[in-house]
Write a structure and sequence with these properties.
463 residues; mainly alpha; Serine Threonine Protein Phosphatase 5, Tetratricopeptide repeat; 4 domains; two-stranded antiparallel sheet
């Protein structure tokens, strides 16, 4: 028996950050102490709510241990830890296997690559052993993730290098087969997510399948498993498979809840809310977002807070409650100002225009939406240009401004053709000019065109 006991803070640190803590001397000491069958610490765990199957999360046991854990006996109100700790002992050699120290820091390795073209970077990472280190893989994954709003191609380039570096790693470098599988799952998961962001859905699906295969043969690291589920949920939302997206987000959220990662739990709630919103249940999405927002750490991830607020405004637009939406929008304006990224600013302007339109401030809405449409056009975002144009068309119908409507339709026709929208939709767009003075029919046509645009965009993403 060890002389000193871990504190509650020691336990909470291990529960919260999983592999990172478990790989430190402090984390190993906590786990080894538990394996020494300390009755005092078992009681403390029980008091913290860690009993029964939740022990799997604590010790990062592999998924296939689920069935055996479900059969472990309870003694009165307490859980018999003996078999669980015995299973953990068998996994510890793999889980804590030391990796070979990296020859150079990740920053130095990346600086070397930065002077080369992408083809040569790929060749070196694939073939030269100094790039094959788990630290470099993690560094590239983190850099890729940080680029997700600013530089989609850069995100994909860094993720590609990450999965290639992970594939170049060996058991001798990592320390065990299972930890090697974890490293590869992490690299492939980020690569898949970057492909999804770039709209390459078929390739993203294949890459996620590879990441999941590696994860299934890894250590069962809970944060890694949850992250992959979260990323796959995003893909399912893009594929408009909303039921699956919601289910995956809930499963990931359950893992984060059990390991005490409140901020990541908030992220899964936002994902679930967005899928729920696009599945047509804006009221339920409002409830989910109102649960998520208080959990978000603004300093850690202001983008997540912005995404939650932006989509909550969208909910109020869909629920025909623009007054609430506008109040929230103005409360979030300082948050929008934190980001200089042009696309974020354009989406904010687009949403402001929709709110002004729905509140009846049609000319003010027109001014804002014209600015947003020009910005999207300058960025080469044809799909967004087409949708904003339809919002403008709805304003002109309500204003009875037939000349403005006809001009907007004429300017939008080439955009529709570039999107391969189909003859039927093009005919509907032309028909809009003919029914400009029939508000009900014209607005119904606009709604139909918006729906058609969404369908075509989804078909294009699936290719």
């Amino acid at each position: 028996m060890l002389e000193h006991h871990p504190t509650q803070r020691d336990f909470e640190g291990l529960l919260r950050v999983g592999e990172t803590a478990g790989g430190t001397p402090e984390g190993r000491w906590v786990v080894r102490h538990l394996l020494a069958e300390c009755a005092f610490c078992r009681e403390r765990l029980h008091g913290m709510g860690w009993k029964g199957r939740r022990l799997e999360r604590l010790l990062n046991l592999r998924p296939e241990l689920d069935d055996s854990l479900s059969e472990l006996p309870y003694i009165g109100e307490s859980f018999s830890y003996d078999a669980a700790f015995a299973a953990a002992e068998r996994a510890l050699d793999d889980y804590f296997a030391p990796s070979r120290p990296a020859e150079r820091s990740p920053e130095d390795l990346l600086a070397e690559l930065a002077t080369l073209d992408m083809e040569e970077q790929i060749r070196r990472v694939s073939c030269e052993s100094r790039f094959a280190s788990p630290e470099f893989v993690r560094y590239l994954v983190e850099r890729s993730h940080a680029m997700r709003y600013e530089d989609g191609q850069g995100m994909l380039d860094q993720a590609k290098l990450a999965h290639l570096a992970a594939e170049a790693c060996t058991v001798e470098i990592i320390g065990s087969e299972r930890r090697l599988a974890d490293v590869r799952a992490r690299g492939w998961g980020q690569f898949a997510n970057a492909l999804r962001v770039r709209g390459r859905m078929a390739e993203a699906e294949d890459a996620f399948a590879t990441a999941q295969r590696y994860c299934e043969t890894g250590t069962g690291d809970p944060p890694l498993r949850a992250r992959l589920l979260e990323q796959l949920s995003s893909l399912r939302s893009f594929q408009r498979r909303f039921d699956q997206a919601i289910e995956l987000a809930e499963t990931a959220g359950g893992i984060y809840r059990e390991i005490g990662d409140t901020h990541s739990l908030a992220s899964t709630l936002v994902q679930k809310a967005i899928a729920t919103l696009y599945d047509g249940d804006a009221e339920a999405a409002v409830r989910i977002l109102n649960r998520a927002i208080p959990l978000i750490d603004h300093e850690e991830d202001p983008h997540l807070l912005l995404a939650a607020s932006h989509n909550l405004v969208r909910c109020y637009i869909d629920l025909d409650r623009p007054d609430q939406g506008l109040t929230l929008y103005f409360e979030a304006r300082d948050l929008y100002k934190e980001f200089k990224h042009q696309i974020i600013q354009l989406r904010a302007a687009w949403q402001e225009g929709q709110l002004l339109r729905d509140l009846g401030h049609l000319r003010s809405a027109e001014t804002v939406l014209l600015r947003a449409r020009k910005g999207f056009l300058d960025q080469g975002l044809a799909y967004e240009v087409a949708l904003v144009a339809l919002d403008l068309a709805a304003i002109y119908v309500r204003l009875g401004a037939a000349t403005d409507l006809k001009q907007t339709v004429s300017e939008t026709m080439p955009i529709f053709r570039s999107l391969r929208i189909g003859r039927e939709a093009l005919a509907s767009l032309l028909q809009l000019q003919q029914v400009a003075d029939q508000e009900h029919q014209a607005l119904a046509l606009i709604r139909s065109l918006v729906s058609r645009l969404e369908d075509v965009q989804q078909q294009n993403l699936a290719r």
